[in-house]
């Protein structure tokens, strides 16, 4: 299936099977805002839980919090968001479409990357087993040209962004002859800065209102609580604070389903370390976070690191973990070494000390911070895209199956009486009543059993349990496995253990 078709299929499947709907759909929806439906909310909660446990339960020196979305407005002055949380915006005068100038340039570089890869693939085919990729990449003139072009462009982009030289961004777009990706027009407006924060007001009367912002990231709720948590939790450096919650950004371009939303959810962890030790921890968290992703078996080849050339104002190192979405490798998680920028800025603006007394060094300092920041919705999309398969079976028929990791599946088992009579529904209900204490279980007695299996395949349920006439005689049921479609007979008393083993955090995370 072509990637574009695959992505369309993902979006329609998410809607058809009750995972994701457009927000306020009866009013034609709201651009780049989505609602999680009955199956979507379960999958999303399970992803959050998988992350939370790995961070908070599995690390004795990490604790969680849940800070408010609304914060004192000075927070955003101190963090730099009021002055610098901008994206460079450019309009195409013919198509009236709006783009991020930096993204247009980055996409141009990605095309050069693809051309390089094509050359490598071609050579690989030609030379077979004798192919020495390293040598080829360092000597082939075409590859060298693409690589140096790309490097020059990215360097200039970083320089212009850093200096806020918007005119140069426009010149670069013109020099590279970048066209509107949708229409091919090169008739561009000037580049302007656009602040991504949503403003709102607090207070009842016009005179007493205060201008606030909806938080554009959850991290600041952690920084302003640094001292509270450190003292009440008696935390010693190095330690971390984790949080999952909503963030809001008035994104200029938001056209990729839940990849780029205006209201989304982040799962962030700020790790406070001794100044000078941040690079060690930065490397540690890069490796640890990649391992977490790989534990879900989404395929090693679908992840890659992308080191930032263009560092944010607060960072001294930054990398993205990118995932291979149907529309290409894109950022899923950011790992940033944020120095002491945020705590120092909050010290300055609040007049309060945000320091740690280190008994081993016998001195106080403002800790450095290494942050891991992952978009929950982007993780959802990665898992959903990767799991959705259209399979051709041996008998020539096909099935649509969502091969979700069992630990994340919305429903763990479906309980299905073969027929709606002879006391089978009653036995099925008894099994549901017992299992639902521990798992999300669904009962279904509509349609033929084959159709019920397919319905459960489509929402990713790992086990179907069928109750038939033999059950009445020997207390056994048929268990059908989603991935292999294999069926076997087991005792009712064994069902719970089967489910439990398939969703053990220890087994998945270890
Ligand atoms: P991008 O470059 O894609 O805009 P970013 O670098 O601005 O992302 P961060 O500020 O590092 O993103 O935010 C951390 C994480 O939050 C990202 O890795 C991403 O998973 C998620 N995220 C950021 N913006 C959005 C959004 N608009 N919709 C959904 N998730 C988002």
Report on the architecture of this protein:
Helix 5 packs parallel to helix 8 and helix 7 runs antiparallel to helix 8. The protein is globular and about 80 Å long. The chain is built from 18 helices and 23 strands. It starts with a helix and ends with a helix. A seven-stranded mixed sheet has the order 3-9-10-16-13-12-11. Strands 20-19-21-22-23 form a five-stranded mixed sheet, sandwiched between helices. Helices cover 40% and strands 25% of the residues. Among the domains are: 110 residues, Herpes Virus-1; 99 residues, Anticodon-binding domain (Rossmann fold), CATH 3.40.50.800. It has 510 residues and is of the alpha+beta class. 33% of the residues are buried. Strand 4 and strand 5 form a beta hairpin. The structure holds adenosine-5'-triphosphate. The site of adenosine-5'-triphosphate has 16 residues, from strand 10, strand 13, strand 16 and helix 13.
Mean pLDDT: 95
Helix percent reads 40-55%
> What integer value in Å does the Rg equal?
26 Å
**What hetero molecules are in the model?**
adenosine-5'-triphosphate
The quaternary state of the protein chains shown equals: single chain
What characteristic shape results from the CA principal axes? globular
Low-confidence stretches: none
Question: What fold name goes in the CATH topology slot of one domain?
Answer: Herpes Virus-1
Q: Hey, roughly how much beta strand do the residues contain?
A: 15-25%
Question: How do the strands line up in the largest sheet?
Answer: 3-9-10-16-13-12-11
What CATH architecture of one domain would you give?
Answer: 2-Layer Sandwich
N- to C-terminal distance:
34 Å
Number of helices: 18
Strand count, sense and barrel status of the largest sheet are:
7 strands, mixed
CATH class designation of one domain? Alpha Beta
Output the structural class: alpha+beta
